[in-house]
Design goal:
Chain A: InterPro entries: NTF2-like_dom_sf, SnoaL-like. Chain A: Keywords: Signal. Chain A: This is L-asparaginase. Chain A: It comes from Alteromonas mediterranea (strain DSM 17117 / CIP 110805 / LMG 28347 / Deep ecotype). The structure holds two protein chains of two kinds. Chain A is of the alpha+beta class. Chain A is built from three helices and six strands; from the N terminus they run ααββαββββ. In chain A, the strands form two sheets. Chain A has a four-stranded antiparallel sheet. In chain A, strands 1-2 form a two-stranded antiparallel ribbon. In chain A, a hairpin with a 2-residue loop joins strand 3 and strand 4. The longest helix of chain A is centred in the N-terminal third of the chain and has 43 residues. Chain B is α/β, with parallel strands linked by helices. Chain B has a single domain, classed as Nuclear Transport Factor 2, Chain: A (Roll). In chain B, about 25% of the residues lie in helices and about 45% in strands. Chain B is built from four helices and eight strands. In chain B, strand 7 and strand 8 form a beta hairpin. The radius of gyration of chain B is 15 Å and the shape is globular. Classes of the chains: A alpha+beta, B alpha/beta. At the A-B interface, strand 1, helix 3, strand 3, strand 4 and strand 5 of A face strand 1, strand 3, helix 4, strand 6 and strand 7 of B.
């Protein structure tokens, strides 16, 4: 009997790291897929991924440089969806994603290339930048509670 | 809207929200303003100390508040440790912060167990190296409780 209990303990100890690692992997996979969905939403001017993946708290604000959208619906209707009218083409290439899960909280940083063409003027742009996403685990899975994006023209960095 | 294209958006949920550029010189009474919250928490105090240290060019304090493996994003640059930041941009950031005037517009700190988020907006004005500065900046700080002390493990600055 002692041997049985000892075996159980050994098996538990041997497998628990893999179970934990698997949970971590599942979290990171879910978060990765969310970010990819959101980027596709930006590219296509589709607000659905935002409604699906953002927590959308009452009173939430979405700030874009000096301006801001108040609430998730405002963000989608006045920012995401109009992009497809303003831009003839928009491509977001995710070059790298780093994800950190801390219990029911997670954050991810993506490195992106953003390129596109303005419909009205024909001006093209090519930028590189970063996005910080913060997530909270809810009963419905991970939800974005904050994002912060910044881009800069693709050119060598100058010190201030 | 079109001038920034989409990637300069910042989502600031009120439950987490808001503001301070790392380059904050002003310390207004914010106790009763809806634009400021969570600043009296331990993590909030760390965030304010960080801003103050940068504006006072106090490198020792700045470094003491950063996690060793802090990830710092600003514009197109990325730094992956406190040592790397100290070697590259810390001095320039402190010189800039101490030369200009920064007014915090919003600053919210929310604690989630052993992690905390500080989100802030600020307006910076002045003259730096002959260049007029007049801009709004945004900052996201992610803090982690490490051995009982809050450390800044991620910074994202943009303007």
């Amino acid at each position: 009997m002692k041997l049985f209990y000892a075996s159980c303990v050994v098996i538990f100890l041997a497998t628990s790291p893999y179970i934990y690692a698997s949970e971590q992997t599942n979290d990171e996979t879910e978060i990765l897929e969310m970010i990819q969905d959101i980027e596709k939403g930006w590219e296509s001017g589709n607000g659905m991924p935002f409604y699906q993946h953002y927590l959308g708290q009452v009173g939430a604000r979405y700030i874009e440089s000096g301006g801001q959208n108040k609430g998730l619906e405002d963000l989608v209707k006045n920012h995401v969806e109009p992009e497809k009218e303003v831009l003839k083409r928009l491509t977001i290439d995710i070059l790298d994603i780093e994800t950190n899960v801390e219990g029911d909280f997670a954050w991810a940083v993506t490195t992106v290339n953003v390129s596109g063409e303005v419909r009205k003027t024909g001006a093209v742009f090519d930028k590189k930048g970063f996005q910080t996403y913060l997530f909270r685990r809810t009963d419905e899975g991970w939800k974005v509670i904050h994002s912060h994006s910044s881009t800069r023209d693709n050119k060598p960095h100058k010190h201030r | 809207m079109k001038k920034i294209y989409l990637l300069s958006i910042i989502l600031v949920p009120l439950l987490l929200t808001n503001s301070v550029n790392a380059h904050d010189k002003s310390h207004n009474d914010t106790s009763n303003s809806p634009m400021f919250s969570g600043l009296d928490s331990d993590a909030g105090i760390i965030a304010k100390q960080f801003h103050k240290a940068l504006s006072e060019a106090n490198a020792e304090t700045v470094m003491s508040l950063l996690a060793d493996d802090v990830l710092i994003l600003e514009g197109g640059r990325i730094e992956r440790s406190a040592d790397e930041y100290r070697a590259h941009h810390l001095q320039a950031d402190m010189q800039f912060s101490s030369a200009v005037t920064t007014k915090t517009i919003e600053h919210h700190v929310r604690v989630h167990g052993n992690t905390a988020v500080s989100i802030s907006r600020s307006h910076t004005s002045g003259n730096y190296k002959g260049r007029d500065i007049d801009r709004t900046g945004n900052e996201t700080l992610f803090l982690t409780l490490i051995n009982g002390q809050w450390k800044i493990s991620h910074i994202h600055w943009s303007h």
